[in-house]
From TrEMBL:
Domain AB hydrolase-1 intervals: 110-366
Bilayer-spanning residue ranges: 20-42
Superkingdom to which the source organism belongs: Bacteria
Keywords: Hydrolase, Membrane, Transmembrane, Transmembrane helix
UniProt-recorded name of the protein: Alpha/beta hydrolase
Organism placement in taxonomy: Bacteria, Bacillati, Actinomycetota, Actinomycetes, Kitasatosporales
Alphabetized GO MF terms: hydrolase activity
Organism per entry: Streptomyces silvisoli
InterPro entries hit by this protein: AB_hydrolase_1 (IPR000073), AB_hydrolase_fold (IPR029058), AB_hydrolase_sf (IPR050266)
Length: 407
């Protein structure tokens, strides 16, 4: 890492070499921190670089994943940052009875999906596909991610914080779901966002939150995660990552060129930190595209927030509501014991650890996630006596609980 930071070499070749090295480090550290992308290792051993590049372009042009769109809207954070969201409205039940979704003037159950670090709302592709037309849902891009604007506070030099993301979620809810019961769903950083929201707005939680879904996330102690590295390597990463990321973020243009030049290496590293099994190459490419589109300076801005994240105490605000906590058994970024710790704080929660699954379990094993999510929605709807289409209950009926959390 010392060499890759590069000194100011006077030769063009030295600068180019330093830029390439910085790109390699940026790709590796950005992916380790974000935990989201993909690649197929065997293909890199047997297929030439040019062919692989063409294959990526073909997947970008024809891949069906991440193409679903809803009705767009914009909410404004307290610092003026434009937060982009999309709403999927339920359709009539097929018998001309829109009242199934709105009773006595009350808004239907709304699911609000918050995505993870270096991802976008498209990370929920399969859940969106399964629930489309059946449940009112809001998908949003966190500040500086996806279609949302760069955080104004960060552009002014302020650090990104999980508490700030919790307030951003409140702004989205106020704009896109101002009434009616809510189910809050969060993956990774999105789950932390939900915890911060609960800590800051307990009254709104008590009044409106009917259920919560945490997937691949943590309530704290992330600085102790080994990332699948030997103990010495994990310690070195924790010490070096913040300063290296700051340096890379300050040379964003140079590093972004390096990331593009090292796409094959990038794909290979990120697959290890995203999936626990082989996935459809188009799904892998979707994940890769999301992290590729996250600028290195955004990666640098958000990374320190995770070591400071400690929100276990906020979970008491959510206790007593239907809750689902899911994790992949091969998640190296937010290991399943972090999900177990969340479930311990929510005695009524269902804890599901999915075999052969990594950090992006909702993309890797969508049928498992969707069935358990549908079951959660059924419990939440029943708890607040909200209508729910039979199609959602049918989706939930076949799910098998792999593990249940109890006090």
């Amino acid at each position: 890492m010392t060499d890759s930071s590069g000194s100011g070499s006077g030769s063009g070749g030295g600068l180019k070499s330093a830029g390439r090295s910085a790109g390699l480090v940026g790709a590796a550290i950005g992916v380790l921190a974000a935990g989201a992308a993909a690649g197929v290792a065997i293909e890199r051993m047997t297929v030439g670089r040019a062919i692989r590049s063409k294959a990526r372009l073909a997947l970008d042009a024809t891949g069906p994943f991440g193409t679903l769109r809803g009705t767009p809207g914009v909410a404004y954070a307290e610092d003026g940052t434009a937060l982009r969201y999309e709403v999927e409205e339920p359709e009539p039940d097929g018998r001309g009875r829109p009242g199934l979704f709105r009773r006595n003037g009350t808004a239907p159950l709304t699911v609000v999906f918050s995505h993870g670090y270096c991802l976008s709302q498209d990370a929920w592709h399969f859940q969106r596909l399964a629930l489309r037309g059946k449940v009112r849902a809001v998908y949003w891009d966190q500040r500086s991610h996806g279609r949302s604007a760069r955080g104004h506070a960060q552009l002014d030099g302020e650090p990104a914080t999980i508490d700030q993301l919790g307030r951003d979620l409140r702004a989205v809810i106020d704009a896109a779901a101002p009434e009616g019961p809510l189910v809050l769903a969060g993956h990774s950083m999105g789950g932390m966002t939900v915890m911060a929201f609960a800590a800051q707005f307990p009254e709104l939680v008590r009044e409106r939150v009917a259920g919560v879904f945490f997937v691949g996330t943590s309530a704290g102690k992330l600085s102790a995660v080994s990332l699948g590295l030997p103990a010495m390597g994990a310690r070195a990463f924790r010490v070096l990552a913040p300063s290296v990321l700051r340096a890379l973020g300050s040379q964003a243009t140079l590093v972004e060129r390096g990331r593009r030049a090292t796409a094959d290496l990038f794909a290979g590293i990120v697959k290890r930190y995203s999936f626990g099994s082989e996935v459809d190459p188009a799904v892998a490419r979707l994940a890769e595209r999301m992290i590729e589109s996250t600028p290195i300076d955004v990666v640098a801005e958000f990374y320190p927030a995770f070591t400071e994240h400690e929100k276990a105490e906020s979970l008491v605000v959510l206790d007593g509501r239907p809750a689902l906590v899911m994790a992949g058994d091969k998640d190296l970024l937010t290991p399943s014991d972090h999900s177990a710790a969340i479930a311990e704080r929510l005695p009524s929660a269902e804890l599901v650890v999915v075999p052969a699954a990594g950090h992006l379990v909702m993309l890797e094993h969508p049928e498992v996630v969707n069935a358990h999510l549908a079951a959660l929605l059924a419990r939440a709807a029943d708890a607040v006596r909200a209508p729910l289409p039979d199609a959602v209950r049918e989706l939930a009926s076949g799910h098998e609980v792999t593990q249940a959390a109890r006090a």
